[in-house]
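Morning F.,

Quick status update on the modeling queue. The single chain you submitted on Monday has been processed. Sequence for confirmation:
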Amino acid sequence: MASFVDSTVKDIDERLRELKQELAKLEAARAALQGGRRGPGRPRGSTNRTRARRTTTRRRTGARRGRRGGNTRANQALELVRSQPGITIPDIAKAMGIEPNYLYRVLPKLAQEGQLRREGKGWHPAS
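Structure tokens below.
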């Protein structure tokens, strides 16, 4: 009896696979006749965009992003400079475990704010 049930379930599964394939073919033929969808998951008219994409991001006027409070990377770098005067950007980056390119942008801003000063290649806390 169990073998009969297993073979019947297997026959039903096979027939369902055949019907799903036939259904997909029929839906594709219907869509082609009606000029419907171009493919699975692609909405009608998706290739003809009426709006051009913005390639640049625009910031609101007057909205400046400043440093956040708390333990940000800029504050971490500032603490490293205070604890090791004369430290270089590559050394700071290595100690923080980050790439130095971020620090080449941030440390001059800290110097502009009067928190650091640069002497040669090293950075020192402002007096």
